[in-house]
Write a structure and sequence with these properties.
The protein has a single domain, classed as monomeric porin ompg (Porin), CATH 2.40.160.40. By secondary structure, it is mainly beta. Helices cover about 15% and strands about 50% of the residues. It is elongated.
């Protein structure tokens, strides 16, 4: 069991991923910023944009709220088992490990004659979260000898995972010279999904009366549910190629379908201050195909196994103690398999920002005397605050960001960020955008202070993409 926990800590520390894209939010030179705020600003000269298929947005972002690779595998000559034990007791049951990956397949947009900017596309997303089951980790690592009468909380099990394709189409409109509004409709095609949250139950060891065994082990009020879709049919397939083919076949509306919407807006308070906000993935997936739900409930007390020593003939097996115990547990705590449909709400995401704009005036107003104009003015520098939140099974995960944006020329822009979140209080990020003719390229990375030794980082982010942007002549 200790070897298993060591491997789990390594995987959690290396592969945990978050969803915040603070370096892309509000950067109007990047077409993908409309996915973070459908009501974001777009250059008034931009007529069309096309993402390079499969390369317009590659998003890899890793983090862990409570442990890093260095915490476990540092080369200090100490005992790795002691480091793991220390982290088990330091971590809380609200610490989490997540994996979120996005790959944009298609992205496009155009400005219509009524000045509405339409955009749409397809992207693939994988989203996983698991909270740290502290009591179970202690039980697995320490055993129960020193925890007599301690109730280990089985309800700490809380995890979800989804692999899906998202089809989206949105509209962005400058309603007044101060206000821009946007909306985006989404269709989710779920490939595979599972969820196990809101569980209950305890495991406790008491001293027995000594008639059968010294100890008495009790599983009490257990109520654990695991909902799945898309997994059952995979068991009937032969080989990885058939499994991959089946999953890919669900990408284009072949899986469970869901609906969602994004809304957002940007408001120029005056010629210096701008506020923006967005709500993303307000929707749900309706799981009706290939659904299996496993439910465990009941109570059970084990006083030990009473060993019998009956006379046995040559070659006659001993009584099947373990098989009998399994049968008894299954009778007392049965695992029911259900095939009911269920609805899964998407993790709701919130973005908000307030920026102070200064420096030279750029764009269509660059040559005018704009001292008396209160809105609609773009400047080449800004500083501000951003807020991000995502709903999760045990509560919202939030992040706050300070940023500085600078447009150096008509072709090069940059954004620097300082972010405080569940992973770190020292997260510095930097992103660059360049427009070379019609070719648009962006790259962004955060937690730059840890690049000297990535093993110490609790979060690492890399985002890049290639687009074609066509301006009005």
């Amino acid at each position: 069991m200790r070897k298993v926990l060591t491997c789990l800590f390594a995987l959690w520390a290396i592969m945990s991923i978050a969803q915040n894209k603070q370096l892309l939010y509000g950067v109007e030179e990047i077409p993908q910023s409309l996915l973070l705020n459908p009501g974001g600003k777009i250059s008034v000269t931009q007529k069309y944009h096309f993402g390079i298929p499969f390369f317009s947005q590659i998003h890899i972002n890793g983090g862990s709220s409570g442990v890093s690779v260095f915490d476990i595998f540092e080369d200090s000559g100490g005992d790795i088992n002691e480091r793991i034990r220390k982290k088990i007791f330091e971590l809380k049951n609200t610490d989490f490990f997540t994996v979120t990956q996005q790959l944009e397949i298609i992205n496009f947009g155009w400005r219509a004659q009524n000045e509405i900017y339409f955009s749409g596309g397809i992207y693939q997303e994988f989203d996983f979260i698991s909270y740290f089951p502290r009591d179970l980790a202690i039980l697995a690592w320490e055993g129960n000898r020193d925890y007599i009468d301690y109730e280990f909380d089985l309800g700490e099990i809380s995890t979800t995972g989804d692999l899906m394709t998202v089809f989206h189409f949105g509209a962005n409109k400058q309603v007044t010279n101060k206000l821009i509004l946007g909306i985006r409709a989404k269709i989710y095609s779920s490939l595979i999904s599972y969820r196990s949250t809101n569980n209950n139950g305890t495991f406790v060891t008491h001293l027995g009366d000594g008639t059968i065994n010294i100890y008495e082990h009790t599983v009490q009020d257990i109520d654990i549910t695991v909902e799945t879709s898309g997994f059952a049919s995979l068991r009937e397939l032969n080989g990885s190629s058939q499994v991959i083919g089946e999953i890919l076949g669900r990408a284009f509306f072949g899986g469970n379908i869901g609906l969602g919407v994004d809304i957002g807006g940007t408001y120029d308070i005056n010629d210096k201050f701008t506020a923006s906000a967005s709500i993303l993935d307000f929707g749900a997936i309706f799981h009706t195909k290939d659904v299996e739900t496993y439910h465990v409930s009941g109570n059970y007390t084990l006083n030990g196994i009473e060993l019998l020593f009956p006379p046995l003939n040559i070659g006659e097996p001993a009584p099947p103690y373990w098989d009998d115990l399994e049968d008894e547990i299954e009778r007392e705590i049965p695992i029911d398999t259900l095939y009911n449909s269920y609805t899964q709400f998407r993790p709701l995401k919130l973005n908000a920002s307030l920026s102070y704009n200064f420096g030279k005036i750029i764009g269509n107003n660059a040559e005018c005397d704009c001292r008396n104009i209160n809105s609609g003015i773009d400047r080449d520098q800004s500083v501000g605050l951003q807020f991000y939140s995502i709903s999760r099974p045990k509560g919202a995960q939030m992040a706050g960001t300070l940023f500085y944006y600078r447009r150096f020329t008509d072709y090069i822009s940059a954004k620097a960020t300082y972010t405080i979140d569940s992973y770190s209080t020292t997260n510095l990020g930097l992103g660059f955008v360049t427009d070379l003719g019609k070719f648009n390229f962006y790259i962004a990375a955060d937690n730059l202070l840890r690049y000297g030794n990535l093993a110490k980082a609790k979060s690492i982010s890399l985002q890049l993409g290639f687009n074609i942007k066509i301006d009005e002549e």
